[in-house]
Fold these 4 entries.
Entry 1:
Amino acid sequence: MKIDIEAIREALRKFNRRAGVLKSDPYGIGLSLSQSSALVDIGRFGKLKPNDLARLLRLNKFSVSRMVDVLHENKLINVSDDPADGRSKFLALTAGGKKAVVTINEVANRSVTDVLNYLDLKDQRALAIAFESLGVAVDIADRASSSQPEQIA
C-alpha cells in the first residue's frame, strides 16, 4: 500500500491553519511561533545555552541571537554568564516567561482538544499513536543527519 504523502501534508496544513500557527501572534501574547517555541523549550530544560536552543529550533545562530534579544528585552528570559565558560551564556525563564509558557500551552492544548473532540475515542488514540511514531521518526532522522559529516559546497 502506497502512503499518500500529499494527504498527510494537507491534513497538517489544515490543522496548522485551524490552530492559528500561521498568524504573526498565534498565542495572543505578542510573540511569533518561533519565539513561543523558544520559550517552551527553555522552560522544558530549565536553562539552555543559545547554541543548544538554535539546534533544538533548527535555526541559525544569528536568528536565535536576535530572538534572545527580543525575549530578554520583553523580560521573558534572563541571560546569565556560564560560570564554567565566561564566553558562554545561559538562558532561563523569568516569572513573565513562565506565565507566557502557561498561556502557550493552554492555547495549544485547546487547539488540539477542539479538533480531537470531533473524533471518536478510537480515532483519537490512533492519531496519538501516529504522532508518537512521527516524533520517534523525527528523532531518528535528526540523529542520522547529525552523524553525517557536514558537506562543504
Note: Residues 148-153 have pLDDT under 50 and may be disordered.
Entry 2:
Amino acid sequence: MQVPVVKVEIVEERENFLKIKLVGQKTTLAVLLSKRLLRREDVNFSSWSIDHPEHDYAYLLITASNPREKLKQTIDELLEECEKLEQSFETACKTAGNPAK
C-alpha cells in the first residue's frame, strides 16, 4: 500500500483568481474535497475529471483580491489535511498488519 499523495499545480492565474489542479488518488481527493476548508466563499470546487484508473484530477477556483495569498493559505490547509490522512492511513495499515510503504 502507498501513502496518499496529492500534487498541486497552478493551471491559470489572473488578477483576482487562480485555477489550481489537484492530482492524486480518487479516494484521497474525495476526502480532501469533502472537507469544509474547500467549501468557502473564496474557494470553489470547479470540476472533477477521470484521466487514469487510479488517479484523478480536481480543479479548484480561488477567487480573492490577493489569490496568491489565498492559494498559499489553501495549500497550507490542504497539506495539513494530507498529513492527517497520511497518519490515519498508516495507523489503519498497522492495525491491519500491512505497513504503509
Note: The chain has a mean pLDDT of 70.
Entry 3:
Amino acid sequence: MEWFSGIGIPQVICPAVMSPCSGLVHCSFRGTSRLELMEKEIKHNVLSYSKCGPRYLWPSISNYVLQLSSSNDPESPIAFMYFLDSGGGSYPEVISSSQAGWFKNISQEINPDSRVPEIVFWHIPAKAYRNVAPWFSVRKPCVGSINKEKVASQEGELGIMNILVRRPSVKAVFVGHNHGLDWCCPHHKLWLCFARHTGYGGYGGWPRGARILEITEKPFSLKSWIRMEDGKVHSEVLLSS
C-alpha cells in the first residue's frame, strides 16, 4: 500500500477538525500520527476488525472489544477479545486507570457472570511480565523458544492487572514490544504471553514467526503455538480448557 511507503508518509499531522476517533484536535509526533494510523487501518484494510475506542479515553485510541461468535449461532459468544492501547511514542507507556475502569465496566456489561472466556491484547507488557520472566532459558512452567532480552515493561501499573487476575473469565494476555522474547508464563490463574516478531521492520535479527491462537468451541479450549516463517511449529501450550 502506497501510504505505508516512503512517499506515503506525511510530514506533520495536526488535525484541524474534530476526529471521529478522538473528538479532539491534537498533534502527535512527527510522521504519521497515531490517530491517522488507526483511521487509515480502518479505511484501507478491508480484513481489519480494528476500531476507534471511546473518546473519553484519549489520548489512548485503540480500546475496543470483539465478540467471537459460535459457528452455529452468530448471536452466541464463545469468547470476547479485548484490545487496549498501551501507549508509547510521544505518549506514556502505560494502561491508565481510566482504561482499567473501562475494561471493568464493559466486561461486566457484556459478560456479567464471567461465563464467556475472555482474551486480552495490548502491545507493551505490564510489569507483571517481569515477575514471571524466565531467568535464562525458557523452562517449565513457561513455554517458549527465545528469552534473549529483559522485559521492557510499561512505566507503571494503574490497576488493569489487579482487575484481570480477579476476573475468572480472563484466560490470557498477549503482548509484543520485545522482539527477543516469545514465551508464555502462568501468572496466578491466567497466562502472560509474548507474540513473535513477525515483520521485517524493527530491531533484532531473530528468525521471524507468528503466534497462532486456536479456539475450540465445545468444550472450550485455548491453545497457542509459534509458527516460523519457514513453516516450522514449536512451543505449543494449552492456555485454557
Note: Confidence is low (pLDDT under 50) at residues 1-13, 22-29.
Entry 4:
Amino acid sequence: MSAAHGKNYHADDRHTGQTLATALRGWLTGKSWGDVKKLIAQRRVAVNGNLCVDAGRKLRATDVVKVLEHPAAAPVEPHDVRVRYFDRHVVVVEKPPGVTSTRHHEERDWPKRRKQMQPTLDEMLPHVLARVGRRPVKGGRTPPVRAVHRLDRETSGLMVFARSPEAAAELMQQFRQHSTQRRYLAIALGDVAEQTIESRLVRDRGDGRRGSTTLANVGKHAVTHVRPLESLPGYTLLECRLETGRTHQIRIHLAEAGHPLCGEKVYNQPYAARRIVDNSRAPRVALHAAELGFVH
C-alpha cells in the first residue's frame, strides 16, 4: 500500500454519493476491493481529519480523504472515560478526544460487531457506570443513558447525560433555552483580542461547510464570548463562553475571525482575505469543555 502513504485525495462532484470504498478504489490504482476494505478496517483512512472505519460512508464533493501511513490509535475504551459526578438521574463525564458523543442517525442500524469497532460515548457509559456504581446492576444490565447535548469528536471535556426520563426532559429544556453555563478552553492561531462574535449559522455556507450568513432570518443565531488568557508565540490561549450552543460554533466563529483553532482541518480556509498557517502540529482540534453548569 506504499503508493498512498500519507496522501490526501479530494472528492469532487463526481464522488458525491459514492461510498468511501468505491472512491478509494478509483484513487488507488491497482488495488482490489479487499485491499481497500482492509485499509479501512486497519484504521488507516481519515475523512476530513477524522478516522473513518465505515467502508460504506457516502462522500460529499468537499470531503478530503487521507490514507494514513500507520494505523490510527485504538478506539477509546470505557476505562478512558472519567466520571466526575453521578446520581440516579444524571451522570457527568469527562469525554476524551477521539470518540463521538452519540451515533449518527445513519449508523444506528449497523450490526453490533461494526459498532464495537468504533463505539460512541453513550454506548460506553453503561459499562462505565457499572464499574463505578458500587451496586449490582438489576437483571445483569445497566440502564441506558440519554444524551442531551454533544461535543465534537475531537473535542474533550465535560458532558452531562440523563439517566431518567425526568432528568432528560429538564436538561433538554435547559439546553434549548441556553440557560446552561459552558466555558471552553481553546488555543487559536495568531494574536486574538477580547471580543464577542455574533452571527447566524447555516448548514452550508456555499462550499458544503457550516458557516455564517449575512442573510436576515436565515440560519440560527449564535453568540460566542472570547477572552484571551495567555499570549503564546504565534498562538493565544482563550476562554470561550457560549451564549448559544450551535454545532461547531466556536470553531466557525474563530476561523471566520481569522484565528482558526490549532489542529483545525475543516474550518481552515482563508476568511476576509487573511490566511494563518497552522504550524502547531496539534494532533486534534485544540478545544476543551472545561466548565459545565446546569440546574439539578
Note: The CA atoms of residues 97 and 125 lie 15 Å apart.
